[in-house]
Amino acid sequence: MTPSNRRIAIVEDDSALRESLSEAVTSTDHWQVVGSYGRAEIAIPAIQKEPPDIVITDIQLPGLSGIQLVRKLKPLCPTTQFLIVTVFEDADRVFEALAAGASGYVLKRDIDSKLLESLDDVLSGGSPMSSAIARKVVQHFQLPVQEPGEDFNLTQREKETLELLSMGYLYKEIASKLGVRVETVSFHLGNIYRKLHVRTRTEAVVKYMARIQDNPS
Fold first, then answer.
1. Residue 114 CB neighbours (<10 A)
2. Span between the terminal Cα atoms of the chain, in Å
3. By Cβ atoms counted within 10 A, which residue in 138, 155, 156, 188 is the most buried?
4. Which residues lie closer than 8 Å to 83 by C-beta, 6 or more apart?
5. pTM summary value
């Protein structure tokens, strides 16, 4: 791939920041901005029609979120990489973005120092993250290992809820897929947290998925 062939699309509702990202990207000969959008609903069909090499997207967008954008586009554009650039650094948002198909997660405060490096890293097969984000991910994957054969006694519906949660779906989306109310999803998650002895959705997913890998039957 030659530098001039590296195509990028930007999805950011703040027009000033969107322009700043575009200027930063085009400050080198490595990148060509082929799309700049303020809403996911406008970006999705355009990106699907002509998939770029990388999509930079914020999480907090009017209408569909950046995470929803990634989840919708990744299966349609499997060779396109998605880099999250956002102010949100809570672990649940990070995990949702990565589960949806994002390749990297950079905080906006680190854009000046990490953006171009992160773009190159993504194309090289890496998963760039701001140091604060990397620490949170490591902390959540350092949960105590359960004893072999530990049974969480989840009901079938609780397992279905947790599986959808692990795929990055939001509560409202889980409710729609299961044909139940959002309040019912919240009720199931409360039971899941209690049975798995965790406090967040990220801990619940990590602990449950670790058990599945250890006990595939």
1. 19
2. 43
3. 188
4. 54, 55, 56, 57, 102, 103, 104, 105, 106, 118, 119, 122, 128
5. 0.66
* Domain 3-140 class in CATH: alpha beta
Tell me the pLDDT tens digit for each residue of 188-202: 888 888 888 877 776
> pLDDT digits over 2-36, tens only?
445 789 999 999 999 999 999 989 888 889 999 99
Residue 38, token pair as written in the block = 């303020």
Asked if 170 and 92 count as a contact pair (C-beta separation under 8 A), the reply is no
Buried b (16+ CB within 10 A) or exposed e, 162-190: bebbbbbbbbebbbeeeeeeeebbeebbe
Q: Are 59 and 96 in contact (CB under 8 A)?
A: no
Q: Using CA atoms of 176, 181, 187, 192 in order, give the dihedral in degrees to the nearest 10.
A: -10
Give the domain ranges of the chain: 3-140, 156-214
Could you tell me which CATH class the domain 156-214 is placed in? mainly alpha
Whether 206 and 143 have beta carbons less than 8 Å apart is answered as yes
Q: What is the pLDDT of residues 152-206, one digit of tens each?
A: 788 899 988 888 877 767 778 888 999 998 889 888 888 888 888 877 776 777 7
- Residue 116 or 5, more confident: 116
Tokens standing for 105?
């997660």
